[in-house]
Every structure is written in C-alpha cells, then in structure tokens.
Amino acid sequence: MEQEYDLGAYIGQGKFGSVVLCRSKVIGEEFACKMLRKGEEPVRLEVENMQHVSGHSGVVTLKAVDEDLESFYLCPEHRAVSVVSVQCPEHRAVSVVSVQCPEHRAVSVVSVIKYGHDRGVVLRDIKPETILLATSGQMKLADFGLAVGMSYGQSLRGAVGSPAYVAPEF
Prior knowledge:
Number of helices: 3
Helix content: 10-25%
Structural class: alpha+beta
CATH class of the largest domain: Mainly Alpha
Distance between the termini: 41 Å
CATH topology of the largest domain: Transferase(Phosphotransferase), domain 1
Strand order of the largest sheet: 1-2-3-5-4
CATH architecture of the largest domain: Orthogonal Bundle
Largest sheet: 5 strands, antiparallel
Number of strands: 10
Strand content: 25-35%
C-alpha cells in the first residue's frame, strides 16, 4: 500500500479500523483509505460486498483494494461529503431517497438498494452518514460494514444497525 500511496491525515475511526486520507503516487488523486484489521468476519464480508456493488453509479467507487498480513486497505473515491455535513433542502433530500422516473436519470437510494439485492447483497445500515453527495451533486452510498450476502428466498432475522438509528422497540 505504502509503495503506491502516501498515507495522510487521520479522518475517522470505526469498530474494525480507521480511515485516513491517501494520495496516489502515480496519478496524484486523493482517496479516503479505510484500513480494516484482518481476522474479523465483518471485515472480510465488507470487502466482498463492496466489490459486489461497486459497479453502480450510486455507490462510492472502489479505486483500490490491497492487503498485508494485518489489514485490508479499501480506497474508495473521496470527492463526496455526507448529507449530514451539508444543508440539504427537503426537495433535494426527497430526490436522493425516492424512486425516480425512468426518464429521470438521477440515482436514488432505492435504486442502489435494488442493485444490491439483484446481486445478492442486502445493505443493512443505510443512514444519513453513509449517504454522500459527490461534488457533481450525485448521491453515493458508502460503508458496507453491515451488508450481508444472501440467496433468493433466504430470510434475515435479528436487529442490525447503528445504535442511534435502531428502533427503540429493539
């Protein structure tokens, strides 16, 4: 990883790893590098699930994946900000989440969910912090740590999600 990228400032911390800025030594493009510790089942699943859904225009593009003995390194595009960090008018928020008419090319959260389901991936932790707005204004989903692969007809049971967003009855 360090042969191809300059690792920079610390951005954030998650349950299984941290995120730092990194810059490609070859093209100079900046990414947010998610460093995930190996040995945790959710880490392996996140890498697999992100690779399954990364072809959709509404999913943060995975630019590079690398690993060493201790960690996986996921480098998705970095030119997006969480909808939580910007003021988003209600009409824009509705268009980001809702289903779009076929003639309207905007990507919605619902279309990304369907794309994942078509590829056997269920995105189980969609929240404002994982809905990003690219500099182009396009919506992108990020963070597939709680996503799970499943087969047609299979059922999921149990409560999953970020504690601040889980319904109180769970």
